Model the fold of this input.
Amino acid sequence: MKRTLILFAVLFFLTSALPAQEKIELWPGLAPGESVREPNVEPDGNRATRVTTPFLLVYRAKEVKTDALMLILPGGGYSTCFYYNEGIPNAQWWNEQGVTAAVLVYRVPRPVGKPIFTPAWQDAQRAVRILRSRAKEWGLNPEKIGVQGYSAGGHLTLLTACNSQTRAYEPIDALDEIPCHVNFAMPVYPAYVLEDGAEGPNTAKGNEADFAAGLNFDAKTPPMCLLHGDKDIYSPMGSVKVYAELRKHNIPCELHIFADAVHGFMFWNDAKNTKTWRSRGLEWMKVMGFF
Done:
């Protein structure tokens, strides 16, 4: 049954996807740490399994209702980038709400000899700088940039939101002088948040675990809306710990833990209470003044 649902979801997303208005490559030459520029690999038409030339896909709403912009970070365990099913459909949903969106296709697979998130984090910081540099051109507010990501992309959302004062790479041009902080963040079932699950599912439910290496809440850490399932193999205690940490710093945060919901609940109909998960984020944006 679940395989059928996955196939249906993939087919629905693929057949309903509209082309982006603009594709923007992140780096003028080689990406940091790369030795080659080669064609990105998409073996089955719904994911990228090897990306050395990361890019943004920009989706602009027909009827713009806010000057905010949403950067979307797909998941895939930092081994693949599922931008067709976790990226594009969510960008289209935001467009339907009147929000401009951009999907980041970041570098995969995981690097050797570095933290699993290093290339993706570099790409995310560069992507924010590009979007901030283009915001006024698109009639948007460069201080209303949000980021929403799922699973590994949820972890990347946290890295992007919490570490903007730490350079992920050495500057290569004038664009890198632009700030890379985001103004709000929506991590959705983020993985790799806790030390007992830094590279995979949590080994001890995450109940007593500290944050995994790499998450450093700084002066530019923005308000967040976190969404997680309580049956997730990537423990919801990661989101709970983020919520608690933000409260210590007096940073506004909203937290939704969905009963009976597993990892990747956006694809499943089993937990009916998750059907409104997208709307929860939209309503939070309105309360916070980003919409």
